[in-house]
Amino acid sequence: MKDENVVNSIAYLGIGLAVLVFIFMALAPMIVKRQSRRDLERAFQEFKLRREALEAKFFQLAASIGKPRGLRWTVCDWKEPVRFVRDRSTGLLTALASVEIHFEAIEGGDMEDVAAVGDVRDASALFHYENGQWGTGGKALFNMNPETAVEKLEHQFEAVENSQQA
Where are the domains of the chain? Predict the structure, then answer.
């Protein structure tokens, strides 16, 4: 009788353990998805809070790169919308911020006599979220607002919906 009770106890323990493993396996994807969404919401909120400082950093870096050649960056006029995308190969979260960029010709440069120098350039400024921090390399996608960039670069990026606008 004792041996039978031990066998039954082990069987019940095994069944219970199997049920727990099954429940964990069923719930794990939902838990991961919920955590991932929470991380995204935190990233969106962080971008919103730091946007002004990020824009200033973008301008500082972009102006120092020296592109376009012969032009000096004078003003970045920030607009809406900001679109968030995820790089399909790396998973890196990226913000595409709408910006109008103003230039002036550098004295003595190739662009000094070009009439189009004063034209305002539409662009999408790039910001990346890595290791819990937003940053920028001062890179812009010229002649592409965020909507156009998402469409034209759909092979590289997938749109990420933001429940709160930045």
Answer: 2-160
Higher local confidence (pLDDT), 84 or 7: 84
Residue 155: Cβ-neighbour burial (10 angstroms; 0-12, 13-18, 19+) = exposed
The CA angle 20-22-26, to the nearest 5 degrees, is 115
Question: For 17-78, what is the HEC assignment?
Answer: HHHHHHHHHHHHHHHHHHHHHHHHHHHHHHHHHHHHHHHHHHHHHHHHHCCCCCEEEEEEEE
CA distance 147 to 124: 9
Cα separation, 163 vs 166, whole angstroms: 10
CA atoms within 13 A on the CB side of 111: 15
- Per the structure block, which two tokens stand in for 103? 């230039």
Tens of pLDDT, residue by residue over 70-84, are: 788 899 999 998 999
